[in-house]
User: Fold this.
Amino acid sequence: MGDLTLFTPETVVLLGALLAFALSVIGAPYRVGWFVSLVVAAAAVAVTIVFLHATGEPFFPGIYRVDAFSQPLKLGIAVGLLLTLLGAGNPGTVRRRNRIDLPVFLFFAALGMMMLVSATELLTLYVALELSAYGLYIPAALHRAQRTGSEAAAKYVLYGAASSAITIYGISLLFGATGTTDLAGVAGAIGTPLGLVGLLLTLSGALFKLAVFPFHAWAPDAYQGAPHQAVTFIGTASKVAAVGVLARFISLASPSPGALTTALLILCVASMTVGNLAAIVQRDFKRLLAYSTVAHAGYIMIGLSCSTDLGVSAAVFYTLIYVPVVFCAFLVVCVLGADGSNPDKAAIAGLYRRSPLLAATLLVGMFGLAGIPPTIGFAGKWVLFSAAIDRHLLWLVVVGAVNATISLYYYLLIIREAYLTPPADDSKVRLAPVASAAAWIAMALVVLGGVFPRPIWDLAENAARALAMN
Assistant:
């Protein structure tokens, strides 16, 4: 056995899940469970920062690795959990009798995601993948409009079950090709036809979480029909875990065989193009964010497709900064949709007059997603395009730049609605103190990160180096 203290961040999240479950069992009021969960989530962030540079194996050798690759991703997951809970003070879209259960599933999902990015053995990875998935399936079904929530959850579960089945089949092929479930042992078989097919099938679970085309079909309906707080966590933390799995598997095949590189590039271009073109015609803000997620999955795939240290660094960097950037948009959804509705462009109209702080949060989020300086989204796209140029994939940079220009159109339309369109309703939008704090924290991370991106980039570079050494 190794040093069990290395499992401390995950232990804190597990204790948070158990504590939230205990409060649910005794029927505690939601505000009590939410406040306790918020404190534990903040503790999880603090503990993860303390263990940010820890290395070692807490359990038996070869199944679970704590290193410079896993720890920054765990920090991104913990921050996503904390931000989601900050925006969950008034979960108006969640059924009233089930609101106390929401933090339970968020904690269990976060635990599975943290385990995913450290798993170095196929069965451990699959169990962590399922734990993170079921922690998200259930909250997706808790919408106060039962028919809406059930439809969203059904599509999410069906697509998730299909990707899970494909993943376990891929794992069986990898095991058949190598006779081992250890990732280090699997790496030797990636160059064989059976090993390559097994790798591609195994990646389907992570591609589903990241909402990469064609694994994205669940996203628009699930985003639209699931409770706002559940979608916030799905749209932030789960992307970090997915990139962790993809980067670890793709590194096994580095330098990638031609077939794998071709497959990744096709998924990359298709995700960017389909996501951005579909987002243009959306009026429901959550559906727009869903297709925006598909497009950003394509941007992340630019770095992963390069199969270089710089590409992995860029992908990790972009994933970490994506959490606070997209949270700004989801916080607006949570506040405007506190009555149980899904905000559309009409609900956003004149937001500057109704709530200057919320409008500023939306502005920062849209600028970050579009990659406009001084937000950190600009630095994210810069490093991704730099990685592609370094790999002599200039055509991919052109495709990415064209797609970024397309996305700029619909992001600016949202900003125009918020600042230049008269509101249909002049009533003020009042933010709770915790929601206001969440807005300021998210905006600070996006803007200050854009001005001083070096600390996050250093973490991403160290992550890529650690992955290359494994």
Observations:
- DSSP finds 22 helices and no strands in the chain.
